[in-house]
From TrEMBL:
This is 4-coumarate--CoA ligase 5. Gene3D superfamilies: 3.30.300.30, 3.40.50.980, Luciferase, Domain 3. GO terms for molecular function: CoA-ligase activity. Residues 1-20 form the signal peptide.
């Protein structure tokens, strides 16, 4: 992945990264929307990728490249390309660093289905410079850092904070295809990590597992949790088991911000906060309804960010871009927060409907649109509920079609599981209702559903 990513970037091409767990239908939608002309794939995903390209108009994808041996007829092998001396390639690429799109990750934004986020060279480089500031950088200034990451590199967080920042700071990076407890522990002993990019479920494992001995964490300096918030309880458990010398760092960002906007200052973390804005970044809070700028004592509001790391826009979607970034360049995040007197940001709630499953975005609209076509479903609504292992999980409320009263939760679960990748499965469960609560305009009243779910979980 790293070789292909950096080499493609060097050619001036735009890179759109795809979740390897996606189904053919999910991949084909991204290929079509991004206008991808070439696909680089690992042989283990060959069948899924082929299925995706077969859903596209003939000739849409011109080159299929395997990272190892070519799997399908007509595909190229990466080793064949590496044998090219490159002499025929243009010496001086015409790349506009400010406006040409370097990466095109897909995000659901504040609502809706995934959209291509246009991040230019300048967006990415600016954010790298911001997060490598001496006050916030989590790498070891006194020697070579050894970074452990289970964050996938197709995700903007893994792409920038783990891959690119490691290269920029000269750190050793140890990455994992997926979290394998036995391999993770073995690697801790072998490589002696100083920095870990983790999510709360893995932190829980480190604390709870008797196989993770305190001496395995003796080299640790910093634990970074950028994709999900860490509670005070977990922090205390880590310090009790491994020592209070381990620093925790949390931040706030989103794909549209390349991805960072706030990050706690090393050694000065205010419990529960995401820290102050990064350098050259401005933050303001606005009233949820009126959008008027709020003063420091006016209470929580929607978080708006302005800075050089802001995306260029959503690909082929000027309406969504205009709804997210106003005429003055402020990006409306869809998150509710407050700021203390030191400028530290605290996340309180989320206006946007997205569900965060292990740090991955799941848009309720995507699941609801799919459920519309499920036999026996008259209406549906999807919300996120707390989950011990996933952080959040999708829960579907279903109204049965009167002609299909025999439809079961298992039927709904299988329908989704057969069509979407794992993190979009209904791990929060399925609940049948007589009617989905909606407002006068027909909008789903998700707050009522969340209250219903919380009430059910406490009973």
């Amino acid at each position: 992945f790293v070789i292909c990513f950096l080499a493609t970037a060097a050619t001036g091409a735009t890179i759109t990264t795809v979740n390897s767990l996606y189904t053919p239908a999910e991949i084909s939608r991204q290929l079509e929307d991004s206008g991808a002309s070439a696909v680089i794939y690992h042989p283990t995903t060959a069948a899924v990728v082929l299925g995706a390209t077969q859903m596209l108009p003939p000739g849409s994808v011109k080159h299929m490249i395997s990272t190892h041996e070519a799997v399908n007829s007509g595909d190229l092998a990466l080793l064949t390309l590496e044998a090219d001396d490159g002499l025929a390639y243009p010496k001086n690429l015409q790349v506009d660093l400010a406006s040409d799109v370097l990466v095109l990750p897909y995000s659901s934004g504040t609502t809706g289905v995934p959209k291509g986020v246009e991040l230019t060279n300048r967006c990415i480089v600016c954010n790298l410079q911001q997060v490598s500031h001496p006050k916030v950088v989590f790498h070891n200034p006194d020697g070579v850092s050894v970074l452990f990451s289970v964050v996938p590199m197709f995700h903007i967080y893994g792409m920038v904070a783990c891959l690119m920042l490691s290269i920029l700071t000269g750190s050793k990076s140890v990455t994992f295809h997926k979290f394998d407890p036995q391999l993770f522990i073995k690697s801790m002993v072998q490589y002696k990590p100083t920095v870990m990019h983790l999510v709360p479920p893995i932190l829980n494992f480190l604390v709870q597992s008797p196989k993770v001995l305190p001496e395995y964490m003796a080299s640790m300096r910093t634990i970074v949790c950028g994709a999900a918030s860490v509670g005070d309880v977990i922090v205390k458990q880590v310090h009790d088991k491994f020592g209070s010398g381990i620093l925790f760092q949390e931040g706030f960002g989103m794909t549209e911000l390349s991805p960072g906007a706030h990050l706690t200052i090393m050694g000065e973390c205010t419990p529960g906060s995401c820290g102050p804005p990064l350098s050259n970044t401005m933050t303001k809070l606005v009233h949820v309804e009126t959008k008027e700028t709020l003063g420091p004592d006016d209470g929580p509001g929607e978080i708006c960010i302005k800075g050089p790391q802001l995306m260029k826009g959503y690909r082929n979607n000027p309406e969504a871009t205009a709804a997210t970034i106003d005429a003055d360049g402020w990006l409306y995040t869809g998150d509710i927060g407050r700021v203390d007197s030191d400028g530290n940001l605290f996340i309180i709630d989320r206006l946007k409907e997205l569900i965060k499953v292990k740090g991955f975005q799941v848009a309720p609209a995507e699941l609801e649109n799919l459920l519309k076509d499920c036999p026996g479903v008259a209406d549906s609504a999807v919300i996120g509920v707390k989950h011990d292992k996933l952080g959040e999980a999708p829960l579907a409320y279903i109204v049965k079609n009167p002609k299909h009263e025999s439809i079961t939760e298992e039927h709904i679960q299988k329908y989704i599981a057969d069509r979407l990748s794992t993190h979009k499965h209904l791990a929060g469960g399925v609940v049948f209702l007589d009617a989905i609560p909606k407002g006068s305009t027909g909008k789903i009243l998700r707050k009522e559903l969340k209250q219903m779910a919380e009430s059910d979980s406490s009973n």
